TrEMBL record:
One GO CC annotation: ribosome
Biased composition (Basic and acidic residues): 30-42
Record-stated family: Belongs to the bacterial ribosomal protein bTHX family.
Region (Disordered): 1-42
Keywords from the UniProt entry: Ribonucleoprotein, Ribosomal protein
Protein's UniProt keywords contain Glycoprotein: no
The protein's name: Ribosomal small subunit protein bTHX
């Protein structure tokens, strides 16, 4: 379990990859209601 281990978080960081141990940050999508409010203001 270290930098060379592909299944560990530290290994994912050193290998510059993502997976179950190191998920990507999820970007919040605006909801439909928010989109309607934004379009009405214009």
């Amino acid at each position: 379990m270290g930098k060379g281990d592909k299944k560990s978080k530290k290994g994912k960081i050193s290998n510059n990859s993502y997976g179950a141990r190191r998920p990507r940050k999820i970007k919040k999508r605006p909801t439909i209601e928010e989109k309607i409010k934004i379009s009405k203001k214009k």
